[in-house]
Design brief:
Layout (H helix, E strand, L loop, with lengths): L14 H44 L6 H20 L15 H10 L4 H11 L4 H14 L5 H10 L3 H7 L6 H32 L4 H22 L7 H28 L4 H11 L3 H11 L1 H15 L2 H19 L9 H8 L3 H13 L5 H24 L4 H4 L4 H25 L1 H4 L3
Helix pairs in contact: 1-3, 1-4, 1-5, 1-6, 1-17, 5-17, 6-17, 7-16, 7-17, 8-9, 8-13, 8-19, 9-10, 9-14, 9-19, 10-12, 10-19, 11-12, 11-13, 11-19, 12-13, 14-15
């Protein structure tokens, strides 16, 4: 059985070929997660150290570390008492307390430790594990190169993101999925399918080969590589057409991935609004998930629902391609020889991971998961799947592949995708955060 990555055969027989690359992605992902945990901890220390510094300057801080720690505990116990009496609706979190050596250093020097400033800066510029895996992976691929022994495994690692999307379902209730999903459906119909249809007609008018225009429409409109793969046999796309379209899709997605988080900040987008934007505008699922995760967890929750709706349109884009490129031309020339088994095409191309996501949402709705279990699934385990997958994505961003995109078809796909991104940004900002917030 082949799937998930171009040229990778997912069978036990092929496991030895994939194993070196998979292990490389596992190690690379683990190192990035250690980096992520370290800088986040330094940022937490930075915030607490800033409070201590303020107290020092005001003459309110105590030189005794135990007195500092006891004051934090007393404040927490008082807040917990208010909660237990029903005077507060939210249970207080345990306070973050600086280590003794850090506290004493801040108190005596009156300055912020360099490593804490560094950690805070890394978080501010969003240099989390997502950015590290993508940027370093891309740097390695395009400088020293990726040895052939690792190539199959790194390609095979990319779809490991999808199990992460499945377990993310433990964070949702059906009320969220349906509410955000309905709005997402409108966005998908307006922008995603609209882009695909536009490219089809534009390609026909521009005399672009049907095979190339078809996979470009599916990829730039609906869901990146997955949709292009689904439509390719319908439009009889040649290998050249397929890789040409994929080059365009990956180039646009790569540019979006490294610019959208900063554009979102510049426009003042909240996390839910940003999630809705990238869920609508970024073409490839892996790049979409990476950008949303880069921006924040709430962004990921919203983007995932929009993406689920969008990926669900793959069977519909296959039907559209059958109509536009097979049935319509055949009817025009009275050709009855071109026949396809529509149900078989849809059955073969429907993304099964969506069903797994819905199962997890249902289990959460039934109260199957505790908050602790949700945190383990939706944060810890999810990060492991994402880290391995993002390592594969970064190590496979080759500038040579991106350069394959060009010419009239590239212009059509790129302009249409850019127009979709601009209009989608305006739409989600007008709709507002409340409509996209996963509660």
């Amino acid at each position: 059985m082949a799937g998930g990555g171009i040229g990778v055969d997912y069978t036990l027989r092929n496991l030895p070929r994939m194993l070196p690359g998979l292990l490389l992605c596992l190690v690379f992902g683990w190192l990035a997660l250690q980096w992520d945990a370290t800088i986040h901890n330094w940022q937490r220390e930075y915030k607490e150290a800033a409070v201590v510094l303020s107290s020092v300057k005001e003459g309110k801080a105590s030189a005794d570390y135990n007195a500092y720690k006891q004051a934090k505990d007393d404040k927490y116990m008082a807040a917990l008492g208010q909660f237990e009496k029903g005077l507060e609706s939210k249970k207080p979190s345990k306070p973050f307390v600086l280590k003794k050596d850090t506290y004493e250093s801040v108190y005596t020097s009156g300055t912020m430790p360099t490593k804490l400033e560094f950690g805070n800066l890394m978080i501010q510029i969003q240099m989390t594990y997502v950015a590290v895996l993508l940027l370093l992976g891309m740097l390695i691929r395009n400088t020293i190169g990726l040895p052939a022994i690792f190539q199959a495994g790194t390609i095979a690692a990319r779809p490991i993101i999808k199990p992460g999307i499945v377990i993310l379902g433990a964070y949702y209730l059906w009320s969220d999925v349906l509410r955000v999903g309905v709005i997402g459906l409108l966005l998908v119909v307006a922008f995603v399918m609209g882009t695909a249809v536009l490219i089809c007609f534009w390609g026909r008018k521009g005399k672009v080969d049907d095979g190339l225009a078809g996979v470009m429409a599916a990829g730039a409109g609906v869901c990146g590589v997955s949709a292009a793969v689904a439509v390719a046999p319908v439009v009889n796309a040649k290998p050249r057409d397929f890789f040409y379209a994929i080059g365009t899709i990956l180039l646009f997605g790569t540019l979006c991935l490294f610019t959208f988080p900063y554009i979102g900040q510049l426009l003042g987008m909240s996390q839910p609004v940003f999630g809705a934007w990238v869920g609508t505008a970024i073409l490839n699922t892996a790049q979409l998930v990476a950008a949303a995760t880069w921006y924040g967890h709430q962004s990921l929750l919203t983007a995932n629902i929009i993406n689920i709706v969008r990926v669900g349109f793959i069977p519909l884009i296959v039907l559209w391609a059958i109509y536009f490129y097979v049935i319509k031309p055949a009817a025009a020339c009275a050709d009855t020889t071109k026949k396809l088994n529509v149900l078989q095409v849809i059955r073969e191309k429907f993304p099964i991971f969506i069903l797994g996501f819905f199962v997890m949402v249902t289990l959460n709705e039934l109260g199957f998961f505790t908050q602790t279990q949700r945190d383990v699934l939706g944060k810890d385990l999810l990060k492991i799947f994402f880290a391995i997958g993002f390592a594969g994505v970064g190590l496979n961003i080759a500038f040579g592949d991106l350069r394959k995109a060009g010419g009239k078809a590239f212009a059509i796909g790129f302009i249409a995708a850019t127009l979709k991104a601009i209009l989608a940004a305006a739409a989600v900002m007008l709709i507002g955060a409340e409509a996209f917030t996963v509660k």
